[in-house]
Amino acid sequence: MGGLCWQTPDALLSTPPLLADKLVSQPYQDLSLGDYSLLWKAHKKLTRSALLLGIRNSMEPLVEKLTQEFCERMRAQAGTPVAIQKEFSFLTCSVICCLTFGDKEDTLVHAFHDCVQDLMKSWEHWSIQVLDIVPFLRFFPNPGLRRLKQALENRDRIVEKQLKQHKDSMVAGQWRDMTDYMLQGMGKPRAEKGHGRLLEGHVHMSVVDLFIGGTETTATTLSWAVAFLLHHPEIQQRLQEELDCELGPGDSGSRVPLKDPSRLPLLTATIAEVLRLRPVVPLALPHRTTRHSSILGYDIPEGTVVIPNLQGAHLDDTVWEQPHEFRPDRFLVPGASPRVLAFGCGARVCLGEPLARLELFVVLARLLHAFTLLPPTGPLPSLRPRSHRGINLTMQPFQVRLQPRGAVAPGPSQHQ
């Protein structure tokens, strides 16, 4: 059903008016929660252009550089159990900070990282989710709603400070980062007459969308990849052999072949399999039909809320052979596997998909080329998703030991 929903994209462009989303989106000035309109299309075009400009001009060497720094930090902790989820989260937040503000100072990264963590925790609390079902409850005392508003005030304070610094220092026609590009493009008439102009609030929410959509999501996918490879050391070994063949043994300094990922087919297949089994957003954000439509003979009236089940599509045993098994090789046969919908598709596709795929490819390549992933003493990490009320498919906390390649690995008794 999830795949079929996406085959009628022109009927699924709108979003339902939910109370919590209105609070978070200032109101409805962001892309992920904003309703479809000509102004929304202009906003999307500006943000996408800024993102692609950043990726084309600086993202590849930047992600390589930040990943190398990440590996050096991990090397300093070699052999000791590491909470890799937190390390991935800080790395992805650093990438977004550089992309949006041209700055990866630890104080700024920590501020945004803590802000996103606090906001998501407040937003996903049951006391907020219930307001979308029973809106009149907002008139009653609600500590969860108060915490959410405080988190939003903190978010807006941090973003507004950065926007002001950019407005005070930017030079017309020159773009240091995404924020410069969007601020200089926001006042131009990009929508048809009568549909308004892009305002600073749209730039503000583009920044917010990048941090919320580009930090924990990618970090979580990287964490799932590590967990699956701990359970499947034979695949990890094959990946390392592939990387040694392409990049050379040890820290040779060879660049990851970003322009031609087919040179690392097993790594590409492994990423696809992780995204298939554990899409970070198993249920896509709610959509609302803009016209009467039908799916499999079922009539869907205009204004109906539709929630595409991405994970259901990925685990459909009529489409995938042994869908619950981790089998990257299924993607190594040309044309044998259907498309993975982890980022959605159509007009509402995740704008950060190119950046997320770049990070997944570079980070996993560098990590597996430099280290062997070993479990700490005790059981392997759980592959069962964490019980969670939010939209993200999170995992149980776990630790991993990173053994530098070429070093003598500890005996089996040390990592039963």
TrEMBL record:
Subcellular location: Endoplasmic reticulum membrane; Microsome membrane
Catalytic activity field: progesterone + reduced [NADPH--hemoprotein reductase] + O2 = 21-hydroxyprogesterone + oxidized [NADPH--hemoprotein reductase] + H2O + H(+); 17alpha-hydroxyprogesterone + reduced [NADPH--hemoprotein reductase] + O2 = 11-deoxycortisol + oxidized [NADPH--hemoprotein reductase] + H2O + H(+)
Coarse class of the protein's main subcellular location: endoplasmic reticulum
Enzyme class, spelled out: oxidoreductase
One of the GO biological process terms: steroid biosynthetic process
Topology class, membrane: Peripheral membrane protein
UniProt-listed InterPro entries: Cyt_P450, Cyt_P450_CS, Cyt_P450_E_grp-I, Cyt_P450_sf
Sites where the protein binds heme: C350
Enzyme Commission no: 1.14.14.16
TM annotation in the entry: none
GO molecular function: heme binding; iron ion binding; steroid 17-alpha-monooxygenase activity; steroid 21-monooxygenase activity; steroid binding
Record's GO cellular component terms: endoplasmic reticulum membrane
Cofactors: heme b; heme
Sequence similarity: Belongs to the cytochrome P450 family.
Task of the protein: Specifically catalyzes the 21-hydroxylation of steroids. Required for the adrenal synthesis of mineralocorticoids and glucocorticoids.
Name of the protein in its database record: Steroid 21-hydroxylase
Originating organism: Acinonyx jubatus
Lineage, opening ranks: Eukaryota, Metazoa, Chordata, Craniata, Vertebrata
